[in-house]
Amino acid sequence: MTHQDFKKYSVRQQIYTIHQYAHFLTLTTIGDCITRLYALDDFYVEYRYNITTLQVSVDAFKDTDRLSSFLSEVDLSVFS
Predict the structure, then answer these.
(1) Which has more confidence, 64 or 25?
(2) What's the whole-model pTM score?
């Protein structure tokens, strides 16, 4: 699956695909917004939800520069 194919899915289909096939990497919490980062095939997926408003958004991307905001959340000690 390409990230362009994934983007064509409805949000419901995207969430199903994340839960079935993606690999969870990390999560961040800023205020009421929780963002989960997943790897799926050769791209990444941000799955965001607001715990107050219950709004959900999903964004797929290939640009690894966007991963920098998650670096402080990754525990590299598990690799040593």
Answers:
(1) 25
(2) 0.83
Cβ burial 41-73 (10 Å sphere, 16+ → b, else e): eebbbbbebeeeeeeeebebeeeeeebeebeee
Phi, psi of 60 (to 5 degrees): -105, 140
Strands, DSSP E only, in the chain? 23-30, 33-40, 43-50, 56-61
- Give the up-direction half-sphere exposure of residue 20: CA atoms within 13 A in the CB hemisphere: 6
Element (H, E) at 21: helix 11-21
Split at pLDDT 50, 70, 90, the class of 49 is very high
